[in-house]
Design brief:
Elements: H1 2-29, H2 34-39, H3 45-55, H4 61-73, H5 87-122, H6 127-141, H7 144-158, H8 174-208, H9 211-218, H10 223-234, H11 236-252, H12 255-260, H13 266-275, H14 279-307, H15 309-314
Amino acid sequence: MRRYLLGRLVSLVLSLVAASLVIFAVIEIVPGDPASYMLGLKASAETVAALRTQLGLDAAPPERYLSWIAGMARGDFGLSYTYKVPVSDLVAQRLTVSLPLAAYALALTALVAFPAGLLAAARRGRIADATVMGATQLGIALPNFWFAMLLVLVFALHWQIFPAGGFPGWEGGIAPGVAALTLPAIALALPQAAILARVLRSALIETEGQDFIRTARAKGLTRGQTMLRHALRNAMIPVMTILGMQFSFLLAGAIIIENVFYLPGLGRLIFQAITQRDLIVVESVVMILVFAVIVVTFAVDLAYAAIDPRLRRRA
């Protein structure tokens, strides 16, 4: 187990280094000068050059890369060109929206997907299976931003149960914050629940054909008991992979939904930083999100080893 952990840690570090190089290289080749953008078209060349020196943009790319990496290692992500505040403060402020939203959406995803996948696998080839598979196909096909606008029309404008957009902050209480995140979380959870339910159904059906399942049935267990006690645990490896990927997507990929609901999250921060050519914010936030994805993948690998002892022995 120790060798397995060490191998995964080395892979994590190498992935972070490779990701940082790719992110920095991509940002470097993006056209446009942040200093010229900030000062406007009428700024003189001397003023632009002075601002580039102030921002550290006139240094050589390797020097800027090493300075950026060293700063992140110390917890210093730099100063935003646009907002004139530390990037770490911006990230901490936006995480109070994006992290609860991702967790909320993931909880709704699991709450819908697990019963649907279990029902479809238990009733394979019957009406319930066809109904669940048809609903999941519809959930995958519907664009989440269109579904989000439909939710606003029905639950915010017509019935006025939930707010149509904005975020009041957690200072006013948990209930208003959760209410503001409910419709965005549902819009994000719908396609993810559809994907997860289909994966769970396929994994359960594949597991049901194995010898230990037939042995359990021969001992007198019902199909439902066998599925819950034996098949579900062995089908969790692909399901956990999807869950880890979904959490990473929900944390980083909710740009459209955050703009639909005017939520001040990480996705909207990245969108604004790109349009404003705030390179230090783009680099740092994307690197933080990459780190979150890699850490979640590492946690999923550890969960693999906990669920399947064969992985530990193989390592």
